Amino acid sequence: MTDHAIMLRSALTETPTVQRWLIAVALLFLAFFLFLPLFAVFSEAFRNGVGAWWEAIIEPDALAAIRLTLLVAAISVPLNMVFGIAAAWAIAKFEFRGKAFLITLIDLPFSVSPVISGLVYVLLFGSGSLLGPWLKSYGIEILFAVPGIVLATIFVTFPFVARELIPVMQDQGTSDEEAALSLGASGWQTFRHVTLPNIRWGLLYGVLLCNARAMGEFGAVSVVSGHIRGLTDTMPLHIEILYNEYNFAAAFAVASLLVGLALVTLVLKTAIELRFAD
Fold first, then answer.
1. Contact 216/262 with Cβ under 8 angstroms?
2. d(Cα 194, Cα 91) in Å, to the nearest integer?
3. Burial 63-73 (b: 16+ CB within 10 A, else e)
4. What are the distances in angstroms from CA 25 to CA 17, 20, 22, 29, 73?
5. Cα–Cα dist 95/91, whole Å
6. Is the per-residue pLDDT at 278 higher than 70?
7. pLDDT of 146 above 80
8. pTM metric for this prediction
9. Inter-residue contact 157 to 212 (CB < 8 Å)
10. 49: alpha, beta or left? (left if phi > 0; alpha if psi -120 to 50)
11. Distances in Å between the alpha carbon of 62 and those of 59, 147, 234?
12. What confidence tier does 2 reach under pLDDT thresholds 50, 70, 90?
């Protein structure tokens, strides 16, 4: 082994003491910023017993918030899945002018505050805009209604599927698709039997991340929802209302349900990562 290799190895290999300290710092960080808040949420949620927790969950406004959250996720996630597949396919499989600009646009929601994205829809569909009064004349309500919440959620979540699929498709290249086309397969057959099986785990991973963000989005949805209790409040907004009313038990009960959904998503995400590792 050369002196350069020995020096490089010594620089990249930490002593057992340093490794233990690094692990301890990481565990301490997780304990204070992840496990402790989770423990606080569930302990407050069940402070008055399971019966009180269940009463808070089945309260009409809470049920309306749960239904709306699931409805918005059920609409926005499939639409983002279609967009993500199309965008990733175009970026990974083809060369065209404006490709870098398209990638920048996909990353835009990561750099723009969700509140700003909600304000954009207010400017587009508000009473003082050009589109708002015109749509309202046809009986179409965007702001302070489900369509506005869906649009805001789609905006803040559309990068997730595309960003997961782009590197997967780039690594795979185009050889499999070219072979299928040369054997007489149509474009749809090639996608169904070649492209989709190759990206299925990356696609599922992106969909899970997209779904988690859709259910937990607060900023953009808060701007466009109007906070109409029982109608346009999603679970995060309903939790804020309960907390501001000092109804802490009910607020933490709904929060625990939202955390539970997030934990289920995390478990599925971990399972997919293990599948990728295999």
1. yes
2. 18
3. ebbbebbeebb
4. 12, 9, 5, 6, 36
5. 7
6. no
7. yes
8. 0.83
9. no
10. left
11. 5, 20, 9
12. low
Query: What pLDDT shows up at residue 224?
Result: 92
Residue 14 has what pLDDT? 67
Closest CA relative to residue 73, chosen from 141, 156, 164, 144: 156
Average pLDDT rounded to a whole number, residues 167-182: 83
In the block, tokens 């997967």 appear at 168
CB 242 within 8 A of CB 261: no
Q: How far apart are CA 221 and CA 210, in angstroms?
A: 15
Residues in the chain: 278
* CA atoms of 64 and 145, how far apart (whole Å): 13
Rounded mean pLDDT of 103-107? 88
Residue identified by tokens 């349900």 is: 257
Q: What is the pLDDT of residues 43-96, one digit of tens each?
A: 888 988 888 899 999 999 999 999 999 999 999 999 999 999 989 988 888 888
Crossing angle of helices 159-172 and 60-93, in 10° steps, is 30
Give which of 151, 255, 270 is closest to 209, Cα–Cα.
270
What is the identity of the amino acid at 191? F
* pLDDT at site 205: 85
- Cβ burial of 123 (10 Å; 0-12, 13-18, 19+) is exposed
Return the DSSP state at 184.
T
Q: d(Cα 66, Cα 163) in Å, to the nearest integer?
A: 28
H helix or E strand, kind and range, residue 227: none
Token pair for residue 56? 């808070």
Mean pLDDT of 230-253: 91
